[in-house]
Amino acid sequence: MTTNDSLTTPDSHVPAPAQRLSLPKLAPAYYQAMVAVDQASRTGLDPVIVELVKLHASMINGCAFCIDMHATDAVKHGEQEHRLLSLPAWRETPWFTARERAALALTESVTLLTQGHVPDAVWAEAAEHFDETELAQLVALIATINAWNRIGVSTRLSPAAK
Predict the structure, then answer these.
(1) Which of 115, 114, 112, 103 is nearest to 140 (CA)?
(2) For 112-135, what is the mean pLDDT?
(3) Average pLDDT, the chain
(4) Which long-range contacts (CB under 8 A, 24 or more apart) does 121-127 make?
């Protein structure tokens, strides 16, 4: 039997894909504008809801970089591990509030626009739990994280090894 050092062992990590390009380096004005938009989109919203929305959209979009970032940020804001782990099945769990559920449903509808747009019932539920200013901020937040996800996935941003 021969050995091959290039083969991975069962417990070794797969290397991250190579990043395609660096937006901060190649499009710095746009990148800084996105950072400013991101900061503005969170204004007036509960930080836990902000991170749940960002994490949920990132999971839907498959953005590993953003999933890692927002799970970490959610924990910093006091979020509990069992809630983060069950986020993809939030409808099936008893531990998300009605307000959080409304935000998560709106996040799904806005993120998955081609699957029925934003149904009136989803909008009405969100409007029951968020005033107009908060609802506007929530739409801005969802749009912004979706933009970040598209940047992260298309440029192959990858979380740092842990």
Answers:
(1) 103
(2) 97
(3) 92
(4) 125/101, 126/102
In the predicted model, what is the mean pLDDT of residues 37-57?
Answer: 97
Residue found by looking up tokens 């626009």 in the block: 113
Cβ 80 vs Cβ 100: under 8 Å = no
Cα(26)–Cα(157) distance, integer angstroms: 14
Residue type, 52: L
Q: What is the pTM of this model?
A: 0.89
Nearest to 101 by CA among 113, 90, 114, 112: 90
pLDDT for 69: 94
Type of residue at 121: A
Mean pLDDT of 71-83: 95
C-alpha distances (whole Å) from 26 to each of 21, 30, 65, 152, 160 are 8, 9, 19, 14, 21
SS3 label, residue 15: coil
